[in-house]
């Protein structure tokens, strides 16, 4: 018996959705017929990305200029979704940055931006969308990293932020399920994205692709609500 959930006409808000993993998730959801709002700090980038998304699926996409480091900005983004579509079924906290340096070279500004974006930004996004998710009994997904359980040299700020996201999401999951909201953190390893000024190329064919993360989100959304994969680690099958 096919128990997979129909995603047509459901709505989503994805932070950091103009490229990389966020865009890959948005593309997968639009293909399934969902209405998707992507946010980013560049108005032009999110609008251009939304135009691309509107060409690939039966769903619809809009771009919203927003900064996860600002709670008011996140409140405004959620309000825009509610005004446009009247509900919020899925919130994906994806926006992130990375600065990698030995602790004696890591600057105060780099530390602050990493924590403010990667960790506090996730809290702001959830806090802003909580009432809407309660109403829809929706889904909250964070994009952490294998760096959220595995530390490495030069990764103090990034490790701290992603360890925090992993812990935050798992603790929030225990709170949110009391309201019928499901919460999952996805923890990818190497993904072929533009992260940290990387330029994806054919050399990245061995890495996880953004559409793979998109497929995971679709699978989570289509799973029967009685079951919750609360933490998903994702690795390349054959690392270079």
TrEMBL record:
Name listed for the protein in its UniProt record: SDR family oxidoreductase
Source species of the chain: Mariniradius sediminis
Pfam short name (any one): adh_short
Keywords on record: Membrane, Transmembrane, Transmembrane helix
Organism domain of life: Bacteria
Gene3D superfamilies, A to Z: NAD(P)-binding Rossmann-like Domain (3.40.50.720)
The keyword tRNA processing is assigned to this record: no
NCBIfam families associated with the record: PRK07326.1
């Amino acid at each position: 018996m096919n128990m997979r959930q129909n995603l047509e006409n459901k709505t989503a808000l994805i932070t950091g959705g103009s490229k990389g993993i966020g865009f890959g998730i948005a593309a997968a959801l639009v293909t399934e017929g969902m209405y998707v709002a992507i946010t980013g700090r560049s108005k032009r980038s999110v609008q251009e990305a939304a135009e691309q998304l509107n060409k690939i699926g039966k769903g619809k996409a809009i771009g919203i200029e927003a900064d996860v480091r600002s709670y008011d900005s996140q409140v405004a983004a959620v309000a825009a979704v509610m005004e446009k579509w009247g509900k919020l079924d899925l919130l994906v906290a994806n926006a992130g940055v990375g600065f990698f340096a030995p602790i004696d070279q890591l600057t105060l500004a780099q530390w602050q931006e990493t924590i403010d974006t990667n960790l506090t930004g996730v809290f702001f996004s959830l806090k802003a969308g909580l009432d809407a998710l309660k109403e829809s009994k929706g889904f909250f997904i964070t994009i952490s990293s294998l760096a959220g359980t595995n530390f490495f040299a030069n990764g103090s700020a990034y490790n701290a932020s992603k360890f925090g996201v992993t812990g935050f999401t798992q603790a929030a999951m225990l709170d949110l399920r009391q309201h019928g909201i499901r919460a999952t953190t996805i923890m990818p390893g190497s993904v072929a994205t533009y992260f940290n000024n990387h330029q994806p190329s054919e050399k990245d064919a061995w890495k996880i692709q953004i559409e793979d993360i998109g497929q995971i989100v679709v699978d989570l959304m289509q799973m029967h609500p009685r079951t919750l994969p609360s933490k998903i680690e994702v690795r390349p099958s054959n690392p270079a």
